[in-house]
């Protein structure tokens, strides 16, 4: 964890310049001491801020590539899953690793928080048991098993409003689950590798495959999609589909290296960004910034890119922080001026104010 000092210095630089992340709890405590201030200001995300971002801290003690990560919606926790068969919990505000749990028997591929900050759902990666598991990170106990898929789970999304989730598998099914029941509550058949996601309200979910995004009413999914949107003839495997926080936009990544941004109400394809394609076993990840104004994406060559949703132009790019080839996992932290990437190490990216010549603050 050699970047800890640099990370803390960057945080101090924010404090001394009277800045707070939009996610204000990031600065509530520093080394156990509460930071008191008479004025609270926020730093608006802009192209200049994005261009200044660099790795503030990294964790390099992984023995395999990170396959998945998730930020908890209301706490400062981050969870990762890795090919070294570990699940790791971090407190981002403190910059510390809290716990490592090994899943040697089942392996681990995808991981998502439930509403509780120390309870997760994760998928297996052992090739013989495709069950999903509800795990308490607090005491390392399995609370429930979810059995139904017969091939690798490649997409997982939890509803933010209810204790339900959906999973998509290479067995060409999408299953709907209630966290309180072991058997699935619904089944959808698809004709390809599915990418799935709930919207922020939990009222709608999207299923993408075969060049189209299908929109379902979560309360009446059995009636089929209420809308079907085209993504410009791109029929390569869908990797990730996500909604912006306000639900107005969706992004879809595909194996051919395309990142599509779609108007989720009209179905209009707004823009397509191109990066290096990924292999059949890899996943091209992308994420909206919290305000929905920017997209960040990984690339098959390990690079990271950012684009403006408004103009469609590239804003910034970064070479991989490691020598790894392949797309890193990438997630923007909720309500914060920070994103994380995961490859053979976990990295937190924050703005470096010393690179910014002029900026505007709002009280």
List the topology elements.
Layout: H1 4-16, E1 29-30, E2 33-34, E3 42-43, H2 47-52, E4 54-59, E5 66-71, E6 77-82, E7 86-91, E8 96-102, E9 111-113, E10 119-123, E11 132-136, E12 141-146, E13 153-158, E14 164-169, E15 173-178, E16 186-189, E17 195-198, E18 204-209, E19 212-217, E20 227-230, E21 238-243, E22 249-254, E23 258-263, E24 269-274, E25 286-288, E26 294-298, E27 304-308, E28 314-318, E29 329-332, E30 339-342, E31 346-350, E32 361-362
Antiparallel strand pairs: 1-2, 3-32, 4-31, 5-6, 6-7, 7-8, 9-10, 10-11, 11-12, 13-14, 14-15, 15-16, 17-18, 18-19, 19-20, 21-22, 22-23, 23-24, 25-26, 26-27, 27-28, 29-30, 30-31
Can you offer a commentary on this structure?
The protein has 363 residues and is mainly beta. The protein has a single domain, classed as YVTN repeat-like/Quinoprotein amine dehydrogenase (Methylamine Dehydrogenase, Chain H, 7 Propeller). The protein is 5% helix and 43% strand. It contains 2 helices and 32 strands. The strands form 9 sheets. Strands 4-31-30-29 form a 4-stranded antiparallel beta sheet. Strand 5 and strand 6 (77-82) form a beta hairpin. The longest helix has 13 residues, at 4-16. It is globular. Residues 11-42 have low confidence and may be disordered.
């Amino acid at each position: 964890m050699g970047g800890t000092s640099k990370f803390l210095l960057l945080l101090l630089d924010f404090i001394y310049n009277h800045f707070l992340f939009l996610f204000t709890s990031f600065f509530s405590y520093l080394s156990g001491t509460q930071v008191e201030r008479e004025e609270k200001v926020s730093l608006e995300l802009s192209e200049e801020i994005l261009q200044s971002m660099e790795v503030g801290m990294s964790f390099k003690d992984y023995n395999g590539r990170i396959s998945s990560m998730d930020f908890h919606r209301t706490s400062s926790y981050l969870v990762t899953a890795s090919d070294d068969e570990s699940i790791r919990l971090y407190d981002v505000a403190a910059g510390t690793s809290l716990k490592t749990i090994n899943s040697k028997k089942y392996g681990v591929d995808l991981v998502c928080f439930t509403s509780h900050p120390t309870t997760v759902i994760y998928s297996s990666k052992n090739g013989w048991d495709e069950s999903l598991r509800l795990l308490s990170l607090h005491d390392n106990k399995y609370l429930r098993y979810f059995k139904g898929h017969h091939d690798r789970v490649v997409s997982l999304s939890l509803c933010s409003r209810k204790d339900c989730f959906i999973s998509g598998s290479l067995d060409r099914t999408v299953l709907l689950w209630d966290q309180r029941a072991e058997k699935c509550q619904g089944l959808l058949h698809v004709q390809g590798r599915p990418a799935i996601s709930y919207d922020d309200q939990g009222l709608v979910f999207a299923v993408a495959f075969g060049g189209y995004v299908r929109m379902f009413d979560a309360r009446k999914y059995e009636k089929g999609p209420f809308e079907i949107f085209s993504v410009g003839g791109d029929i390569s495997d869908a990797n990730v589909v996500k909604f912006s926080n306000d639900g107005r936009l969706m992004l879809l990544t595909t194996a051919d290296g395309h990142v599509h941004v779609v108007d989720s109400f009209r179905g209009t394809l707004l823009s397509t960004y191109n990066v290096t394609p990924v292999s059949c076993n890899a996943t091209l990840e992308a994420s909206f910034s919290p305000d929905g104004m920017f997209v960040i994406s990984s690339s098959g060559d390990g690079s990271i890119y950012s684009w403006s949703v408004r103009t469609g132009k590239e804003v910034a790019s970064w070479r991989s922080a490691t020598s790894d080839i392949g797309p890193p996992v990438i997630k923007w932290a909720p309500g914060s001026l920070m994103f994380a990437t995961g490859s053979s190490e976990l990295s937190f990216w924050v703005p470096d104010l010393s690179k910014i010549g002029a900026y505007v603050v709002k009280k």
